[in-house]
Amino acid sequence: MMIEPRSTATIRALASLAELSANQLEEGVSVEEVIATLRKAAEAVKSVVDAEEAAELSAEEEAAGLVQDLTPMDLLASECEDDTEAESEQPVLNAG
Questions:
Q1: Angle between the N-to-C axes of helices 6-26 and 31-69, in degrees from 0 to 180, rounded to the nearest 10
Q2: Comparing C-alpha atoms, which of 34, 40, 6 is closest to residue 20?
Q3: Tell me, what's the pLDDT at 64?
Q4: What angle do CA 56, 2, 38 make, to 5 degrees?
Q5: Cα–Cα distance for residue pair 75/58, rounded to 1 Å
Q6: What is this structure's pTM?
């Protein structure tokens, strides 16, 4: 089975839902029950779309975080000099 593009799958699902609703009404199902079915379908679609959007946002945020982690830092020469002076004042132990 080949995966359909989102737009084609959406159109087919909407057509199926419309046909189901029409059949239910023809069979004498109450309008309230048909409305309930349509609302359940809407909830299901929204939950899938929301989950997909959340996954896409999460992936984008993770990628942005990686880019930020890889961004070089600019250090001022004075900051480096201060660290060097502090290191030279401490004894260095050699385990050799």
A1: 160
A2: 34
A3: 67
A4: 65
A5: 31
A6: 0.48
